[in-house]
UniProtKB/TrEMBL annotation:
Entry keyword DNA-binding: yes
UniProt cross-references to PROSITE patterns, sorted A to Z: HTH_GNTR (PS50949)
SMART domains according to UniProt: FCD, HTH_GNTR
Signal peptide stretch: none
Assigned keywords, A-Z: DNA-binding, Transcription, Transcription regulation
Domain of life: Bacteria
InterPro entries the UniProt entry points to: GntR_C (IPR011711), TF_FadR/GntR_C (IPR008920), Tscrpt_reg_HTH_GntR (IPR000524), WH-like_DNA-bd_sf (IPR036388), WH_DNA-bd_sf (IPR036390)
Gene3D superfamilies reported in the protein's UniProt record: GntR ligand-binding domain-like, Winged helix-like DNA-binding domain superfamily/Winged helix DNA-binding domain
Protein name: GntR family transcriptional regulator
HTH gntR-type domain boundaries: 7-74
This protein's record includes keyword DNA-binding: yes
UniProt source species: Microtetraspora glauca
Length: 204
């Protein structure tokens, strides 16, 4: 028998706010006043404060002295710089995993493809991230994994913008399926080239 840990009110509120941020419901630059959130969700302000602190720690929100937490804006320049840093990291990944299937990445892609049409975009972001993180983990370098993890929050916020670029989710799934097939087939040069091409960020 598998026991389930109860989800605290703080965790539940953080999850609800996370989904709204990553689905674009709470957009870049939007503030999250504690009093408004407390009234909307029917929870005490200390609970709101703790939930917001969770998302600030994850990098999905920012907070400055004497101001409400807010969703940081990831500009086109930010995205370009993010890709500039990600490319050498994912190139190392491609060198390491070329010619291998990565079961965890395949599983994430299957979950992405199985999402219902009305699934929140946050679910798409989660599986998209899980796929790329599985490939990085498969490279077998804890340092590469840590470096990639530093970029996770900005990457997730950037992926919110893809909602308008991929109105047909099947296209997103097809692109990643092709990427995984090329990586699995190898050789190394083909895998590296596929990853480089994949990391050209589409503009909305």
């Amino acid at each position: 028998m598998t026991s389930l840990r109860p989800v605290s009110t703080v965790q539940a509120l953080a999850a609800a706010l996370r989904e709204r941020v990553l689905s674009g419901d709470i957009g870049p630059g939007a503030f999250l006043p504690e009093q408004e959130i407390s009234a909307r969700y029917g929870v005490a302000r200390p609970t709101v404060r703790e939930a917001l602190a969770v998302l600030v720690h994850e990098g999905l929100l920012r907070r400055e002295r004497n101001r409400s937490a807010y969703v940081p804006e990831v500009t086109s320049a930010d995205l370009a710089d993010l890709m500039y840093v990600r490319r050498p990291l994912e190139d190392l990944m491609a060198q390491a995993v070329a010619g291998r299937r990565v079961a965890a990445a395949d599983a994430a892609l299957d979950r992405l493809g199985s999402l219902p049409p009305d699934a929140p975009w946050a679910a798409v972001v989660a599986e998209h991230m899980a796929l790329h993180e599985a490939l990085v983990v498969a490279a077998g370098s804890p340092r590469l994994e840590r470096l990639y993890g530093v970029l996770a929050a900005e990457t997730r916020l950037g992926l919110v913008r893809l909602r308008d670029v991929y109105p047909d989710r099947d296209e997103l799934v097809a692109e990643h399926r092709e990427l995984l097939e090329i990586i699995a087939a190898g050789p190394e040069d083909a895998a590296r080239q596929a990853v480089r091409e994949h990391l050209h960020w589409r503009e909305t």
